[in-house]
Amino acid sequence: MFFDNAEGMVFRPPSEAKSLILRITIGCSHNACSFCAMYRGVKFRVRSQQEIASLIETASRYYPDTRRIFLADGNALVLSNDRLLPIMQKLHAAFPKLARITCYGGPKDILNKSVEELAQLKTAGLQIIYLGIESGDDETLSYVNKGVSAAEMIEAGQKVLAAGIKLSAMLILGLGGRERSRQHALNSARVVNAINPTMLSALTLMLHHDTPLRAAADRGEFQPLSAYELMLELKTMLAAIDVSEPCIFRSNHVSNLLPLAGTLPKDKEALLSDVSELIDYLKDKGRTPLYNDTGDF
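^ that's the sequence the OP posted. Answer follows.
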């Protein structure tokens, strides 16, 4: 439910399709990941208290029965708790049926908060933080300019869970290219095992125009994976994931070749079987990269 799209496009996780999207920041304060085109044309800014209060008041008139709110844009947690907590209090006052508040969480923003500060947000109603791990491989993280190491990503994810907030983590298949596909898969699984997120999603790299990673691919400096190679990478990653607590797994994003759904570790063998079946089908399809001249699948 998009309430405000005055400045640039609005993005949210697939599971927030029925949520009211409240943009307390515009854009992304990091906005330097070489694969991401989401906020490239948007200048980052934090909305004023007056703007946010006006949006809440207007939204409450149109959608008084709202039960879910997603705080956008890319990293609402860049705000201090002194700013966030009053906003969340206003939301509960304006929407009597509000049951959950969620947001993206940039790893740097999470690291800048203590477990106690995150717990305060949990008490105020923050139920889920979506963390883009993208890769657990340090060389890949550095190459795509994520801004943190695998160890820092682990620390950020563990902080969220220690505060009692559910963590929905995301990995990007193909992000290491052909050169680091296996390292990307295995090290990503290692980071997932160390965090044991509540939910885990595997998306597939899309080489959007006007991104540095697409330019590198066009120059031949980055080698995208074929469909066959992507499935081999996914199989390697899934086989190496060994979580001790139940983790809901999905690969049902629009970018994915194979929609998967299950709970790890319970459904691991069934998921691997589905991936293996597609691998057998694709094994003679060659190594053609999975994008065309327009950058689309």
